[in-house]
Every structure is written in structure tokens, then in C-alpha cells.
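Its record is quoted verbatim for completeness.
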Amino acid sequence: MNLVLRITISLICAITFLNALVFVGISIYRSIHAYELVFSGALDERPGIHLIESLDGFLLAIVFIIFAVGFGKLFLPENVLMKQIQISWLEPRSFTDLKHVLWEAILTTLVVGFAIVIVDDLDDLSWLHLVIPGSILLISLGLRLLKHNHK
């Protein structure tokens, strides 16, 4: 059973890391497309939106990498690959440690995502646009309470 669990966790980490690489590839494509728009003079197509979307994709890739590495370090601490990955701020001792790092990365991604939505819909804002800032506020409060209770 232990072998099956290790294989399952290894697969989860590998596929999550592959997802991160896909997000990096998509973000590179969006960045190149934005630069093509800038250099061709097609500024009416709003290349800045493409650049912000690529930033959002890179941030999502970082979230996936944090999850893959953190999950691997937490559940496969004796793995040779996990021992070689040395990131000072990503050494989870518990699932709560990993959750804190992930929440902070997700909050940053949500803020950038909200900026994209606002710039895209600037001419047609509605009350529905308050859902993302409300989510950011609730997650921030939850993170603050968790950090305050665990110190």
C-alpha cells in the first residue's frame, strides 16, 4: 500500500508540474502575441491586456509549482528529487504551512485577474464585478486569522 501511495503522490506532483509548464507556454505565447501587436502598431487591439493575461498565467504556473513541490516535500520527503529542490520559503513542515504559501500565491493571482476583468469591462461595470474583491477580502481575512492563531 505504501508503494501505491508514493506512486500516486508522485503522479499528482508530476502532472501538476506539467500543468505549470503548459501555463508557462501559454503565457509565453500571449507575451509574444502582445509584442507583435505593439511592434505592428495595432495598439487598438490592447496589447497591454495580453501582457497582463500572460502575467496571470505565469502566476498560475507559480501556484502549480508551489503545489507540486510543496506536496512532494510534504509527502515524499525522502525522494531524491525533492531533496535536491532547495527553496528557502517552501519547506513545509505541515499541510498548514503549505496552505499559507498557496493562499498568498492565489491572492496575488486573484488581484491580477481582477485587474484584467476591470480593464476588459471598464465600459460596462456592474455589481457582479465585486465578487472577486469580496473573495480576495474573505481569503485575506481567513489567512490573517490562521496566521494569527498559529503564532
Notes: The chain is about 80% helix and 0% strand. The mean pLDDT is 87. The helical segments are 2-40, 47-75, 80-84, 95-120, 131-149.
